[in-house]
Amino acid sequence: MTTVACADNSLDTVLRGSYLSYKSEGMRFFHTGDFKRAIAWFDNAIELNPEDFESFLWRSRCHVMLGELADSLKDIDTAGTLEPNHPMGTFMRAETLYQMGEFEKALQVGGRKRL
C-alpha cells in the first residue's frame, strides 16, 4: 500500500497492483517476447481475479509461444468454463491442438462456435 499526496494536500491511499495493472504488464511483456515474465504477471492477475477470462487466454498464448502446450490447454480449459462461446477461446484451443500435432481435433474445434 502506498500513500500519495493529492492536489488538495490530503493523503490518499492508493492500492497498487490491481489485477488490471498485472494484466497490463503481462500483455506488455508478451508483446516484447518475454513470455516467462508475462506468465508471472498473468499469474498475479489471475490470483487477484480468477474469473478474468482474458488473463487465462493471454497466459495460454504465452505457453504456446514457449512450447508448453499442456499448460496452454489447461488455461484454455479454464477460460472455456468462464466464457464458453468466446471466439478467441475457440481459436486458441484449435491453435494449441494444432501445435500438439492433433490436426483433426484442431479442425473439429475450429469448426465449432464454442470451446
Automatic annotation (TrEMBL):
Keywords per UniProt: TPR repeat
**GO CC terms of this entry:** axoneme
**PROSITE patterns reported in the protein's UniProt record:** TPR
Cite the InterPro entries for this sequence. ODAD4, TPR-like_helical_dom_sf, TPR_rpt
Return the TPR repeat spans: 19-52
- Superkingdom to which the source organism belongs: Eukaryota
Q: What is this protein called?
A: Outer dynein arm-docking complex subunit 4
